[in-house]
């Protein structure tokens, strides 16, 4: 699993599978491992590229502030480095915001776009939550931080599974590449500064907007706004799962993604 030095940082990335390139961008508090449950289904059909955003996982975590445009530039530089001209692009939550910046800056690099549990601009409640998460990481340990964050990510049904939440928290505590507090702070502020409301109409690639019906962090109205603003975007609402549906309902998510991608005209010779 290699790293590349781009834009002044070491960026970690991982490539598995063969076929048309499919690039996955994770969101806040997550690195490339967040996609693990759907990877087997994806690599059966695509060359899957994952990365750790700056400040997460095994990528560098500079002390200076980050922007989502800067993080999109990191992704563009990675594609140049690995000599891939065009990808199917998928982003979850903050990763979907980075994906929007990437396709707006480099439309020639994006064949199609899938936005999972994402948004064009936060409202007052969302911004208050994200601001608090950015401040809180400097004042509590990771176990308590996870206990505060996870109720916004998973549904009551998921919480009702014995030992599930406790297991996730234990995994986070034992994970060998935990996020630095300053990185989470910078990510939170980058999200607060994000606004593509007046620009998403410039996205012209085939787009799927996917959200869980029970998502309370990035609720349905955010996905509706994206789907209404992006020309010819398709909106799909999954009954199962909330914001963390990649963990809670991975089969439903990957099925929706693959169904969308199969409908597209092949861009590459297999």
Q: How would you describe the overall organization of this protein?
A:
Residues 21-129 form the AB hydrolase-1 domain. It comes from Nostoc commune NIES-4072. Residues 204-264 form the Peptidase S33 tripeptidyl aminopeptidase-like C-terminal domain. InterPro entries: AB_hydrolase (IPR050471), AB_hydrolase_1 (IPR000073), AB_hydrolase_fold (IPR029058), Epox_hydrolase-like (IPR000639), Pept_S33_TAP-like_C (IPR013595). GO terms for molecular function: triacylglycerol lipase activity. This protein is an alpha/beta fold and 270 residues long. It has a domain at 3-121 and 194-262: 3-Layer(aba) Sandwich (Rossmann fold). The protein is 39% helix and 18% strand. The chain has helices at residues 39-43, 68-81, 94-105, 124-136, 142-149, 156-159, 164-174, 181-192, 220-229, 245-248, 250-262, and strands at 3-6, 9-16, 20-25, 46-51, 87-92, 110-116, 207-212, 234-238. Strands 1-2-4-3-5-6-7-8 form an eight-stranded mixed β-sheet, with helices on both faces. The chain starts with a strand and ends in an 8-residue tail after the last helix.
């Amino acid at each position: 699993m290699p790293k590349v030095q781009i834009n002044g940082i070491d960026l970690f990335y991982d490539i598995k599978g063969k076929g048309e390139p499919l690039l996955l961008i994770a969101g806040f508090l997550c690195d490339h491992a967040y996609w693990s449950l759907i990877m087997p289904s994806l690599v059966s059909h695509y060359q899957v590229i994952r990365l750790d955003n700056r400040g997460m996982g095994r990528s560098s975590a500079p002390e200076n502030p980050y922007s989502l445009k800067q993080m999109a530039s990191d992704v563009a530089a990675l594609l140049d480095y690995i000599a891939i001209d065009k990808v199917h692009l998928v982003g979850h939550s903050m990763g979907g915001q980075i994906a929007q910046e990437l396709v707006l800056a480099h439309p020639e690099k994006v064949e199609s776009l899938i936005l999972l549990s994402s948004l064009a601009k936060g409202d007052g409640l969302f911004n208050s939550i994200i601001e608090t998460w950015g401040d809180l990481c400097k004042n509590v340990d990771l176990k308590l931080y996870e206990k505060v964050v996870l109720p916004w990510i998973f549904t009551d049904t998921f919480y009702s599974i014995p030992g599930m939440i406790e297991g996730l928290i234990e995994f986070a505590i034992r994970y060998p590449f935990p996020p630095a507090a300053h990185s989470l702070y910078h990510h939170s502020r980058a999200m607060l500064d994000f606004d593509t409301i007046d620009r998403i109409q410039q996205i012209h690639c085939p787009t799927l907007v996917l959200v869980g019906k029970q998502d309370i962090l990035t609720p349905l109205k955010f996905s509706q706004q994206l789907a209404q603003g992006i020309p010819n975007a398709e909106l799909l609402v999954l009954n199962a799962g909330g914001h963390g549906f990649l963990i809670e309902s991975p089969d439903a998510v990957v099925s929706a993604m693959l169904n969308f991608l199969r409908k597209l005209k092949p861009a590459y010779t297999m």
